[in-house]
Amino acid sequence: MLLFPLSGIKAQQPINVYEDSLKIGDTMLPGLSVTIPEADYDKTLKEWVKELQSRTKSQVVTENNQMSIFGANIRSISSDPVNVYSRLVSLDSMLMLYASFELKKDQYVERDLDESVFNKAQNFLKEFSKTQYLSVARDQVNAEEKKLHDLQKELSSLENEKSRMRKSISSANSNISSDNENISAGNAELTTVNAALAEQNAQLATMEEGSARKELEDQVKDLEKRKRKAEQSIKSSERKIRKADSNIDKATGEIPRNERIQEKLKEQIAEQEAVYQKFADKLKRIKAY
């Protein structure tokens, strides 16, 4: 997984509001401009139109990338509806929003006319820019937090897998011990049964037909069943031991690989935690604007 080098993280940029002008048609209107760092053009344009149209039935009209709305309700600037002319421009690493506020016919917000209202317009634009920049920063923080969570989840999965492999080895060793005991018991049973069969078969060789011979033959059949059962039990335990040995070999070989991957992930997590913290700190600083 590729991580952003810390040096590649964009530091927070300042939000600057300037006394400016805006050309609408052939007319230059007094106004202001504000920088909106790192913001997406289409998303910001949508939010700007939404802000202008909020609390009013008036609609923004766009012509040649120039926007105008008559009767916008911007309480933070004026208690009366205002006309707003604006334009959003995309630059290399930021957007620039130009806006002119017409309080009354041909009376625009200007510092020289009313500094108090001018400051209110400045704050309005700054707060809009800050909101957009915060949205960008939150998205960045959320993206880095998800990367960190995914890495931690992957590490947890590997830790659980290692634990399962260790339990599998322990269980396999326990089963091998049990099956070895079963084989020993089976071999002991075979020794006893084979001795009994040899003795009874020798007796049968000298016996004549009759009830006694029939009874001994039945005993021989029972012994042969016991022998087959013991042999099958031994073979079954041997198969289980081979399978358990194979599982142990596989798990024993996988654990070092698992541990190597865990170490790499821990390094990536440490790096990603630093990246995430950088973006989180950036978000805090923007909030403080």
Features:
289 residues, alpha+beta, Alpha-D-Glucose-1,6-Bisphosphate, Chain A, domain 4, Helix Hairpins, 2 domains, 7-stranded antiparallel beta sheet, 3 helices, 7 strands, 62% helix, rod-shaped, disordered N terminus
In short:
By secondary structure, this protein is an alpha+beta fold.
At the first level of CATH, the class of the largest domain is: Mainly Alpha
Please state the second-level CATH architecture of the largest domain: Orthogonal Bundle
Q: Average pLDDT, to the nearest integer? A: 94
How far the N terminus sits from the C terminus, by CA atoms, comes to 34 Å
The number of domains is 2
**Gross geometry:** rod-shaped
Number of extended strands: 7
Q: Portion of residues in helices?
A: 55-70%
Could you describe the largest sheet, including whether it forms a barrel? 7 strands, antiparallel
Q: How does the helix and strand content classify structurally?
A: alpha+beta
Structure annotation, total helices: 3
Beta-sheet strand percentage?
15-25%
**CATH topology category name of the largest domain:** Helix Hairpins
Question: What does the radius of gyration come to?
Answer: 42 Å
Uncertain segments are 1-7
Write the element-wise H/E pattern from the N-terminal end onward.
EEHEEEEEHH
